Amino acid sequence: MQITDLNDSTEQYISQDLARAVANPLFPQIDAQLRSGRHICSDDFQAHSYLADAYEALEFFYRRYQVELIKAPEGFFYLRPKSNALLGRSVLSELDMLVGKVLCYLYLSPERLANEGVFTLTELLEELANLADETQLLRMVNQRSGGSDLDKQKLKEKVKGCLRRFRRLGMVTLIGGVDKFTLNEAIFRFGADVRTDEDPREVQMRLIREGEAIVHDDDMPTDEKLQQSDDADSDNEEQLGLEV
Amino acid sequence: MTKKYTLAAQKNLPELVGWVKQEAFCLNLSSDRLAFLIAVSVVAEQELGAELTEAQLHDAFRLVSDIFGQVDETQTERANNAVNEFCRQQLFNRFGADTMDTASLYRLTPLALGIVNFYAQQKTYSNVKLSILLTQVAAEITKVYDAAKQGGDEQYWDESVYSVLKYSVEDIFERIDLTQRAMDSQQQAAKDNIAQLLHQNWSQAISACEQLLAETSSHLRELQDTLTSAGDKLQSGLLNIQETVHGNEDYEHIEVLVFNLQARLDGIIAWGQQSIDLWTRYDRHVHKFIRTAIDMDKNRAFSQRLRESVQNFSQHNWHLVIAEEDRILELRDETLSFRDETITGEVPQEMEYQELVDIQNEVAGRVEAYLAQFKDNQQPLELAMVLRDFLADYPSVQHFDIARLVIDEACKLGLSSAEVKFTGAQAPWRPINTTGAKIQAHHIDTYDTDGQ
Predict the structure, then answer these.
(1) Across the interface, do A194 and B191 touch by the CB < 8 Å criterion?
(2) How far from the centroid of its chain's Cα atoms is residue B125's Cα?
(3) How far apart are the first and last CA of chain B?
(4) From 1.10.225.40, 3.50.50.60, 3.30.470.20, 1.10.530.10, which CATH number describes the B356-447 domain?
(5) I want to staple B160 with a disulfide (CB 3.0 to 4.6 A). Which of B40, B147, B213, B259 is the partner?
(6) Any CB–CB contact under 8 A between A20 and chain B?
(7) pLDDT for B267-308, tens place per residue?
């Protein structure tokens, strides 16, 4: 039984595997989730096993949109749009990156055993204050921050915003409100540059080359920024070389 | 008769809270005080009759005070303080201080014993003890059932059924409950141990952790087996007793008690199942942690590097790219533009929007034209008459507005001769419509001429 019988005038064939993958009732939802930036972890058992089975076919499917379906070494799946992708793409902000790194650190910490992997917002804020430079943190909230309580409150709100974004991306699972959450493996994307003991700068360059990340800009990245950096991907790499 | 046995009305929560507040109950045990209490209990165990003299208390206090490295000078004073405080907190009962020749005697209260037991005897709880308790309670229940089947007079029931259930079976249930609570603490301790192990030496800790997990799991499973097998038997025993007394009004109190015991037993069995569930979840969680975190980061170098990269975040210069489909907001804008055409069509004449002012002006124009006839003919204008004619053509809800317009227009035309001459005569009230509205006005007969 060949689906391709229907359009045998073209040279391109749709493989049986792909046809089966797309015909699967799970496909529309998973496809929509992936396109909205969601990472599918092994906790999402059904979707994960579907992707594991249909990986090769779907990889081909998304490549036609100039998007890569990535299976991370930690086992989760996500879409990585190239600069000329037909799907929308976005970048995470500086604060997102910092909070993400701290969450990744928490994932590896034995603290995660204490409450069966449930962390609270307070713990996250403490760990942030503990690991990161506070003035730098507050600067992300307010350029001229004097470290007032108002700024700290604002920081807290922003961190909550990060958690909500990560939830949409499938990196954390919120329990109830934003005050409690568990971490998923996808949080490891933030640790990509220090995953091995290679020179982090080398790894950063590679990440940028692969389209996994884009180079840091002084301002918060915006869509226009993204557009520019798309146009000048190669330039950015050179710039990075200079900055480093 | 049965009234005698109904439980003394139990206090509800606000009453209980109020009671504690009213009586100003308070417990305050620093660790040296607690040590003193435990020391006293140990000394008391060695005493026949468990009574202690003041000297013995002071000895115990000295021992504790030395271990805690407190100063000698104030010792007696502090010992007295501690003893008095314990009496106040109802941890000691004091006897016989009233006569000169007998020194005071002290005994530990149930509260103090409870506290000491919690700390000192915790280790003795185990599943062995739980199974002994279960056998014991099974034997008691069989005994009660046999007695109930035999039957007898009221006193017989009280002695052989009610009191055994109340004071033996219920008591054993109480102890099973306590044992279970102690085992909850044991599980917590195992969890703490595991966390401790992982904190220290990561990958070597794995086997130790796994062992601890397996031990606790099998321990719990055994316990659950004991509980379920014994539980069914106990439950049917209680059911039998219930059937024997069922429908007999005299033994209603026994039925109530049996019912309570059944609920309690259910609770005990449910506890076992719950703790297994919770532990299994924890077990799975630890295994997953070992599989992911530890396998990924054997010597914790990754953690260390992550830590550094957060600390040196100023050197960080890359941002993750994620797929993100266009916002639904934009889609909505586009769909709106699709529909624009159908919205902007020609509106029928009747539905065109009209400003209120325009309508008023038009009506005023008509009124003006109508009134002008009077002026042109130099007829006296009797407002009431004009209004009555005018308003008859309009629905009653508009009468006020129309009347106001007519009067405004009429006033523009001229004045009444009565007013011009300042006669001071009152104008008569005249009706202007059928619903009883009236106006008071002179005839306008002196028309302005400057407009002409």
Answers:
(1) no
(2) 33
(3) 112
(4) 1.10.225.40
(5) B147
(6) no
(7) 888 888 888 888 888 888 888 888 777 777 777 788 888 888
